[in-house]
Known about the structure:
23% of the residues lie in helices and 23% in strands. By secondary structure, the chain is of the alpha+beta class.
Amino acid sequence: MGKLEETAEELYIYGLPLVVTEITHWGSDDLGLKHCRKFPDENNKRVVKLNTDTLYSLGWTQLARTPYIVHIPDIQERYYLFPVLDAYTNVFESIGTRTPERSAGDYLLILEGEEIPEGYENYQIIRSRDSLNSILLRIETRGKEDYELVNKLQDQFIVRPLYPEKVAPVPESSGIIPAEYVQKLSAKEFFELFAKLSAENPIREEAYVEKFRKFGYDREQGTLNWNELDEEHQKALEVGKASALKKLQEDRRKDENIYRSNYWAVITGGIGNYGEDYLRRATTALGGWGANLVQDSAYAVAYQDAEGELLTGGNTYLLHINKDEYPHAAVFWSITVYGEPDKFLVKNSINRFAVNSHDLDAGRFRKNEDGSLDVILSSEQPEEQNWLPIPEKGKNFSLALRIYWPDQDTLDGNWTAPYIRKLNRR
C-alpha cells in the first residue's frame, strides 16, 4: 500500500468504534434507561457477546442538547456495574459495588465546558467530551428466579435528560446487527458518517485530524464530501477500508495485556479504556462492544481445545476446573458459549447458554467429590447433569470466561484457566 492508503487504513481503525456506537444507538429514544427484564437468548443480536449472568439496562445521551440527570440507588442486595462509555467506547466513569466512594447518589452528566445549570450545583458531576455516551447497567442475577428482585432494582436507577424537549429523534434500527452492518458500509458511507459524527464527538488527536484533512475533512462542519475527492483519494479510502477490515478480522492485538493458559487468552488490561491502542479498541468494538474495565470484570476467551484445535460443534469436550483453580472472583464467575464468527448466543433445546458460580450454589451444576468441576460441552444432551450446549456439527464456537471483580493474581497472570479436552477423538 502507498502512504495515502495507509493513512486511510489508520483512519478507518480509529473511527470504527464511533461508527459502531452510533449504529448500536439507532432505535433508542435517548429519554431514559431501557431495561432488559430477562436474560438474552439467541434472538438478541443488537450487541455481540451478551452475558446471561446479569440483567442489562441501556441508556444513551445527547449532551450537545441537554445534560442528563443520573440517580444511583443504594444497592446492597446484588453486585452491579454502572459504566459510562464515551462515543469511542472508552469507559470514563465506572460506578458500582467495587467503587463505594463513587456509588449511590445523584449525578449530573454534562458536556465538557458547559456551565452547571442552576439548582444542580450540589450534584456529583460527570463530564464527557462527547455528546453521544452509552450507559450499560448490569445487575447480578442469580438465575431466572431472581428476575422479580432484580427488575425492582433496575427501576430504582434513573437516567433522564434535563431538557427532554431538546432531544433529537434517533434513526430507526430496523433489525440491524451493528457489527455486520458497519462492515458492509461502503467507504463513502463509512467516512462520511465518521466525519458527521465527529462534529459532536470530536477526534481527540490532532494527528488524526490532519490525516483526515488529507481527504477533505472539515472539522468545524463535520463533513467529508466524497464527490469532491479525486479518483486517487476515493480509491485510497476504499483500499484503506478493505485492509483495515482484514487486519481487524485477523485480530492482531498487542500481547502485553494478555497471558495464555490452556489455550485461553486471559485479558488483564487494555480494554474498557484503550489509550492509544486504536487497533484493540476497534477489534473490541466489533467483537465485544461495551466491554468493561478489567478491574470490574476480567475476560478470558478460548477458541481452541487443549491440543490447539478449533472448538467445533458436533464434537464432545470436557471442560475441567481443578478444586483449587476456580476463577478468582470476589463476586462470581461465568463461562458462556458463543457462535463463531458472529459471537451470538447459541440456540439449544434447554435454553442454557452458560455455567456460572450461582449454578453451583443452586445445584444446577454439581462439583465432583474432590471439589473439582467437570462440564460436558456437546451438541446433543448427554447423560451427565453438567451439560453446556454447543452448536451443531461443523459450526465453530468460542468460550468466554468472565471474572466479576477479579483479584490481583488474575490480573497479574497467576491463575490457571480451565482445561478443555476433546473426548471423541478419531
